[in-house]
Amino acid sequence: MESKIYILVVEDEPEVLDSIVRDITEFEDHFNVEMTDTAEEAEEIIDQILEEEEMIGLILCDHVLPGKNGVDLLIEMQNDEKTKPTKKVLITGQAGLEETVKAVNEADLKHYIAKPWEKSDLVDITRKLLTDYVIEHVKDPLPYMQVLDAEKIAEHLRTGRQITDQ
Amino acid sequence: MKFKLGAQWLEDRTSVTEMLQRLIDETGEQDRYLFTVAKDTKIFEEGDTLNNVYILLDGTVKLYKKKPYNEVDYPVIELSSGSFIGIIAFTTGLESLTSARTVEECKFLRIPLEDVERLTSEHPNIARYLDELILANLLERFRQNIILQMKLDSTVSKLEEERNELRKAYKDLQEAQNRLVHQEKLATLGQLVAGFAHEVNNPTSAIIRSTDTLQNHLQRFMVRAYEKEESDWRSEGQYFFDLGKKAGFPDTSTIRERSKKLEKEFPEAKKSQIRLMAQMQSELIEKLKVLTKENDDRLPYLLNQFEFGKMFQNIKSAGERISGLVQSLKSYSRADTEDRYEWIDIREGIHDTLQLTSNRIKFYELYIDLPEVPMIYADAAGLNQVWTNIILNASDVMGKQGSLDVRCGSDEENVWVSIRDSGPGIDEEIINKIFEPNFTTKKTGVKFGLGLGLSISKEIVEQHNGNIRAENPEEGGARFIVELPIEKQDKQ
Question: Predicted ipTM?
Fold first, then answer.
């Protein structure tokens, strides 16, 4: 089994954090979900995950956080080679254009989710981004077909590298 | 030449001219030189070369100079009897600097230049009095010049004074305008909030009411769904539901720790189930172990009950938060009061502000000491902005950790409010500047979105005839103190 892929959720309101995690439960059999309520704690967890040589596939991050804000966290991750590949999503109740533009430009923001969100949107985005991540960074994406975008993975397998399957 | 000492003749040129006239009378040539000129007659023109000497015996003459830009004659000096007119042109031989015109009927001695030469050589006394007259006139002109300089100086300082007054008036006007714009902002906010509160309260009540009903239905439904099971453990479901409602939210690192332990205790459980269990009270975990020992099919049922309880509690507390926020917003902006000034208990505004900023200050240790203080006649919404500014500034400085100390009190004259944070304090270099307009230490825009700063706070406090100041107390952090007079002030 390849190393584990994590989904990191950063949100300071426990009720909201709970709801986000509940909405993406279906991915939990294949991905580890980690929750934190501040950017600072997120950084600690990122360090731990990387120390164990595991991967962070996706971060769903609230914008307004106590201490360091979400956009700054995402930008820092983008500037670090080890967390650069992580797909980055901003979840926010305050649609400030300036900060969002900053996130898009400087953190390679992949998606922007406005609160309140629809479960199906959150799930679709999570599936799409994790599929991309798995295709780009995992040698054998086959086990993930069941929970991710199977067609896209199959297409990748067909056109991409040859698979040495036993 | 010889002069009489003393200055009396300076003041008395008339007697000098009388002496001169008498001497000329004695020559027998007086008729040649004595002239009477009617009112408003031009004697000579600026730029003329003068061929005569004019000595004014009686009457008044005005000298005029043309203004360089519009050629209009401007009165320069008024000469009375005893004056030597055209003195500069006579002594220098140059063109006349001014024009001369009679103001009333005037009597002159007009002596042609060539006669002056002759008269003075024939009659040494005439020469002497003429010299004296010239000197007296020059001294008089000089005195006039000094007086003029003094007048100029006082005019300049008066102008400067007026300019300062204008500057101040302009500044006052600007401040008044800022205040008006700010009041307008508040009024708009009030109207928005009134509408907003109405619109939000309705759906919120709908959510809370439906949820109550839904909760009852769900309970009955769950009981029916598991009817076939033995009732003794099924009733435990209700217990899990109730404790779910009371579970609250452990912080994320606690959840992480508990999850690791639970993964070992419940190796069969799914991750989502583990996460739910990590939020359970320990007594519930013990119960769960007992109940699922013989039959772990019971686990999902019990966990569902727990989660239902939690979710209903979430909806309920979220609904309450919305109503609470709307209520605070309403009283914060005084959406339902017409007159901004009224008798208020400042503590209510402080409580509203703490409630509305709870998103930012929930991480701090709060020390709130608000004993009863006298009511004051004040603009509640305005003061709320003052508290908000101070608190949000403190929060910006402290980030996630820190403490906030909010207290109030009163003496005979004032009610005071003190708000102290545990941040790094204010640089001594800038502590005097923080109340100036446009002063900021923030890199990005205002987070709260009202675009208000300490300068507005200062203005609001001063409108109440109070004062606001900042200091770095010995115990650390920064402290803002606002003092407001208890006695009703005349509104500005």
Answer: 0.78
